[in-house]
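Case study 2.
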Amino acid sequence: MTGVFEVIADAADGALAFNPLIGLRGRDVAAAAAALLDAVVKSPKEATGSLGAYVKDLRKVVAGTSDAMPDPKDRRFTDPAWRSNPELRERALTLG
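Prediction:
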């Protein structure tokens, strides 16, 4: 019976991980990088401001002082453990 529980636990762990069936193609990554670079070249002030805001928010998350939470409609984070466990809360903020 233990084997069944291990299979269920593995499936639950894998449900939130990157889905290998979707795939990640090099040309898609290159296209996204090119679009990002194009946006930075066209609007460097906005890009720098956005990066600064992102870094500021990320510092708060790492320090544990962020009051941000994932969108309540995001079903991945409905378990109360995502809010009560500091480590999971930090992960939710970086994933969400």
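The two ends are 35 Å apart (CA to CA).
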